[in-house]
Amino acid sequence: MKIAIVILNWNGEALLERYLPSVIGFSPEAEVYVADNASTDGSISFVQKNHPSVKIIRNAENGGFAKGYNDALAHIKADIFCLLNSDVEVSTGWLEPIKKAFIELPKAAIIQPKILDLLKKDHFEYAGAAGGFLDKLGYPFCRGRIFQTVEKDQGQYDNTQEIFWATGACMFIKSEVFFDLEGFDEDYFAHQEEVDLCWRAHNKGYGVYYVGNSKVYHLGGSTLSNMNPKKTYLNFRNSLFSITKNLPRRKAFIIIFLRLILDGIAAIRFVLMAKPEHCFAIIRAHLSYYRQIKKMLKKREKRSFVTSYYITTSIIWSYFVNQIKYFNILVKD
Fold first, then answer.
1. Which of 33, 52, 86 is the last residue of a domain?
2. pLDDT tens sequence across 81-93
3. Which residue segment(s) compose the domain that 303 sits in?
């Protein structure tokens, strides 16, 4: 089983200097690549000088996460791609449980390890935590992180189980599956493209899994912080893209209508929180979505759509009204 660890980089010399050594040191059985999105800092020269074993792929432009990986992976031959953020520190033996899971779970096409917070190592990290899920309206959340509530890691998610989506911060995917799915949707640019990829994988009958006895530590927010208006814009817009592409048309439009209402409430809430820039980000997200809705409809494949994509009707209602802050309680509820 040939594994290629591919780190997408854009002007991240400081991150590579800090975190690349752990990837090289704890991954002797894998080939390590840096896929550079046309950086203008010293990233490439740093890697060439200090880590000559690392292979470098130079992308012609900064096409974001989606295009960056699509362009780079086309040049790599491996059985498994590990897409790894440049701000991730890996741990001893982190690859063994992943390889074992691919062998023992024939359905597994995509796998995510446990994602912990690099700055608070006994807590889960916002981006991915212990595996991703959706509610019926297409809002994503994680085991170990619902909105801004992040759980302490007490072994409650040390299992291996099927999830709905795996985080792009550290995602393992079979190369044949990646190319069968035609990679990431480049219209997303960044954020939630991994949700869409996993949703399309489910619609084609592939399995997505979380393996809790493999762990990595993610700094997070190195590109955009959780409360950056641009991230708000991309998350809200791209979520609408995914719903349009991956659900039966009638159901998709019902959900889009409901999202228009709920996203409007979210925008008002941001105003009340004295964060008007996030309100405008949500408005811009919807306007961008409506301009591109025909394009998204054309991307729908003639296929069956999974109906068991969600585990709760509304994560917003559960969290803000019923005050359910933790995944285990949510499941029981």
1. 86
2. 999 999 999 999 9
3. 229-332
